[in-house]
Amino acid sequence: MFWFLVMLGVALVISSIGFYKYIYFISLGYGFSVASISVASLIAFRENLSVATILFCVLFILYGLRLSGYLLLREVVSSSYRNKMKTEIKDGKTMKMVAKIAIWVTCALLYACQTAPLYFRLYENADVNISLLIGMVIMVIGIAIESIADIQKNAAKKTAPNRFVSTGLYRLVRCPNYLGEMLFWTGVIVSAIGALSGVLPWVLAITGYLGIIYVMFSGARRLELRQNRTYGQDPEYQAYVKKTPIMVPFIPLYSVASQKWLIG
Description:
The protein is mainly α and about 260 residues long. The chain has 2 domains: about 1-125, no CATH class; about 130-264, no CATH class. It has 10 helices and no strands.
């Protein structure tokens, strides 16, 4: 429990950037918290490290820096993106401080739970096993899918800024970046098999995993509703959404717009 509280403290400090701008609780604060928890783990458990576990930590750092770095760069460089977000995302200026604190703590708790398989593995000095290696491969695939999806979307928007993206990975699913995100954290859970002992580490890890899966589907629903408003009258878009799964390839789930319980 001690190390969970330490990593929660790290997440609280980093994600407090959300008090500057509300959306940062779940954007910049998210990726940078994951990266910072990994750095803190490297320092705290430096005597328990092997080549494999160092690489494991590095994957979390790359994941967090890539995600938040991309979001920060997009916000700084793209004026059109900033203008678009002003109309589509609440700025939080009218939100009461109590509500902001609740969101801050909830987000930090989620980030500490998501990364639990990392620091508990190092704390318990678990042997390198096949689950860790398989999990790391899945994590790399997840990062690659997210990165490629972002590159392909940027390229497509430069060519046709007012058209929805349906090329590259977007031929397989409408939200490939969310698919990559889910794969990354699935790899993290797989890596925990045979490494975590006791009920608490597993409860925290599973809570974090289910939490981020929920967040991803909530994000997909928000994106679908936004795209429906923008492209809903476009026959080409209607044909695209009817044949392309929203999140997982080859799984015939084409819409989550009606799932009002997916709030986030």
